[in-house]
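Anyone have tokens for methylated-DNA--[protein]-cysteine S-methyltransferase? Sequence:
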Amino acid sequence: MKPDDDTCWAAVRDRDRAFDGRFFYGVLSTGVYCRPSCASRTPLRRNLRFYAVAADAERDGLRPCKRCKPLARTADEATIRTVRELCRYIQQHSDQNPGLEQLSRRAHLSPSHLQRRFKAVLGVSPKDFVESCRLDALKRKLRDGRSVAAATYDAGFGSSSRVYERAAHRLGMTPRQYRAGGRGVDISWALSETPLGLLMIGASDRGLCFVQFGASESELRGQLQAEFPQAAITPMPANARDQFAQWMQALSRHLSGRQVALDLPLDLRGTAFQMKVWNYLLKIPYGALRSYSEVAQAIGAPRAVRAVASACAANRVGLVVPCHRVIRGDGGLGGYRWGLERKRSLIDLERSVRTAGA
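Reply: yep, here.
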């Protein structure tokens, strides 16, 4: 799992080899990304950005450092060079939505070989990388003031309502709202005491986007605001009281073992890789466990174990997206952003309910 930014900065400053493979850092002033132990001159903190996987750094237009060679452990030099050339091509032609066949011809590889090599280097498929680049292009065009129709079409999403909705899903809001800087996105919240502590839920008109535990209302409100800094955040309105009550009741029953399935509307927002991990987590059965490695294998990125752990840690919708069902390969609990005691309690509860129903 990627450490927090302060820990990452300390690792970069100390050139700590123990953190190699756990994250990459990008130097915005030079346009490169490195491993934490890179022997290059330590950059200024304000010029750094930290990444869980190399694909995110590549998508931001950064190139691997020639000194520390951050990708050297994942593939041979020829494969790395091929994948990087394809990344540049995709970034320049994302509006044309290049497919696997086209990319494989350009790389002089079969589609299956390209798919495997691309994932081995970056942790995501060519299709996911193309989609992320198109989304980035859409964001840039909207921020530049292009009309929604023009920006959506020019970014390669087309002009049909169906494609417009897909772009909206990936943005976490409609393109029009994104163009306005996120203003106009309303998130309502409610609190409830549960067997595992104070729980806050937050929802947009699309569904739940925030389900988290905390010590107090002020702490949880601060977390919600930090997750969605430009949204209009308000307490649960009176006309939504019944809906919020139903969601809270479902979560409370789930936490007491009286309701196994949670079929609740979701508004998930994340990178292509995070979305792939979270969508897989939704498929893990109640009471079952998977290792971070098994999740990485299941999503087709077997080398991206640490990135999977990082995606689990970035989950904003606890319980419903059951990241607590993912543990270490040796049986250890791993991490959990709401505390290992809660993770242990959830695993024990689900195991006992499943055993009783067997």
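The chain has a mean pLDDT of 85.
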